[in-house]
């Protein structure tokens, strides 16, 4: 079981982070002070850390700078209401691995933790064949199969569908898709995601697959699982 340290002084936010991470299978320890958080993080017993920027005792930048100077490489997701580009750049340059702006969607926060662990090779080797309902995706052959039919997927659509299939029925935001699929740490303000999702939806429809990709206006997308087609 993965162990996450939450360094956050706002009790409501701390409770939200802990509840969501525990819901998806992590153990969580929460501290509300930067200096105490640094002390706990230096123990090296955590797989990931969520870190607020504004903290009593020692602010988030001080915590992450001290951690990296001590050689602690634990993945850190910085969480802050400070949303300016300069603030995000400072957090990442100080040693943060990712930056999430408040208010946030708790499901996205948990997914970002999973992605950080995956990037740091801290998760078991991932499956190369994914299945959600009656939809099967072979990552090695790039083959999408359903109801006895199959098609080959282009590389970008493959990455996009893989990400959705690894998080079925979970909300994934545009920002997170851009980071995971395209490697952007910002939304370039294009129709890039919509174009690829339209193509994927058409492929799923042509194959007669049960899972559908829904758009939640203003929030993001979900791969919604349903019973297999008769």
CATH class of the largest domain: Alpha Beta
CATH architecture of the largest domain: 3-Layer(aba) Sandwich
- Order of secondary-structure elements: EHEHEHEHEHEEEEHHHEE
Oligomeric state of shown chains: single chain
Strand order of the largest sheet: 2-1-3-4-5
End-to-end distance: 38 Å
Any idea what the CATH superfamily of the largest domain is called?
Response regulator
**What would you report as the Rg, rounded to the nearest angstrom?**
19 Å
Number of strands: 11
Give start-end ranges of low-pLDDT stretches: none
CATH topology term of the largest domain: Rossmann fold
Count of DSSP helices? 8
Strand percentage, roughly?
Answer: 15-25%
What is the helix fraction of residues, given as a range?
25-40%
Mean pLDDT: 86
Shape: elongated
Structural domains: how many: 2
Which structural class matches the secondary elements?
Answer: alpha/beta
* Major sheet size, sense and barrel closure: 5 strands, parallel
List the main descriptive attributes of the protein structure presented here.
8 helices; alpha/beta; 230 residues; Arc Repressor Mutant, subunit A; single chain; 40% helix; five-stranded parallel sheet; 2 domains; Rossmann fold
